[in-house]
Amino acid sequence: MRSNPRPVVETSQVTISKDRKGHKIINQYTIIKKIGEGAYATVKLCKARDDFYAMKVFKKDMLMRRRDFSNSADGRMVVTNALTDVYKEIDLMKELNHPNVIRMYEIIDDVEGEKIYMILDYCERGSLMDWNSNEHRFITPWTNKEISESQLKSIFRQLVLAVRYLHINHIIHRDIKPQNVLLTSKNHVKLADFGQASKFEGENDNIRKTQGTYHFLAPESITDIEHCSGRAADIWAVGVTLYIAVFNILPFSGSSISEIMNSIENDDLIIPNIRPISADLRNLILHVLDKNPRTRVTIEGLLVDPWLNSEGQPLMSLI
Ligand SMILES: Nc1ncnc2c1ncn2[C@@H]1O[C@H](COP(=O)(O)OP(=O)(O)O)[C@@H](O)[C@H]1O
Ligand SMILES: [Mg+2]
């Protein structure tokens, strides 16, 4: 992997204070407001001098209480806690250097402190989409209009470049979904949340363990996790994300985990009549959501896909 020309600042001292308006200040960062909440972390908007950043804050004691059981390559049971996973996330993020992947500027971790602070690129528009439980559909928090096909194309071209960058660098993301695809004010895409990501050695990207969000799991990771390619599973998740961005609904769903899994495994993919789409977009959706990982489009196939290449420079010239 290309080494990061602007290395991540690692700070082991935390000073917390308040400004005159009562805003909390953590080292040089003034906290402005909360912008997101995930399973393990809170994300805040903060400002240092004239620049805005996103600060992802982890609580160490809560992470340590969350245990995770998995199998190592030689079949041994490994017990980790979520704090170990956060340090894995941090190590992975330190290496990342791509315009469409969220960048970490600084990591603040006082050994004695209760929290870990990750300083990231701030994406003004937030997530590409969020689940709205009242409306029972995905919505675009950053616009009240439908995302046009041309906008969708620009977003997914950038997402494909991000995923290709990860895959050629032997990283699988394992949690690609609309909530983790972030947009800046200029509609630049930054893939975020490396909490589930992992590195693989050589060509063996078998994932062995079901991870990520149920609705985005690839069919083969439900039926045959032992022989499942992490890269193909990431492509499937890009497909689910694309489907949601086009139609605002999930391609496969259910009211319990087993129903969701059953739908992913057995239901036919339906292209709804919610909005008219071009034949090329329709073909792309069918190719990414191919249930057979062997015939599913690969990242190299996406780089030459007709729909993704019908506007802008050829993707191949951008890698
Ligand atoms: N850099 C960022 N800029 C803007 N919003 C962000 C940023 N990072 C995260 N968020 C928001 O916070 C949410 C949770 O962050 P994420 O990193 O996905 O945490 P988790 O690992 O807990 O899911 C995201 O879905 C997004 O809406
Ligand atoms: Mg997330």
TrEMBL record:
Residues 29-308 form the Protein kinase domain. Transmembrane segments: none annotated. SUPFAM superfamilies: Protein kinase-like (PK-like). GO terms for molecular function: ATP binding; protein serine/threonine kinase activity. ATP binds at K56. Keywords: ATP-binding, Kinase, Nucleotide-binding, Serine/threonine-protein kinase, Transferase. The keyword Nucleotide-binding applies. GO terms for biological process: intracellular signal transduction. InterPro entries: Kinase-like_dom_sf, Prot_kinase_dom, Protein_kinase_ATP_BS, Ser/Thr_kinase_AS. SMART domains: S_TKc (SM00220). Pfam families: Pkinase. GO terms for cellular component: cytoplasm. Monomer. Belongs to the protein kinase superfamily. This is Protein kinase domain-containing protein. It comes from Blepharisma stoltei.
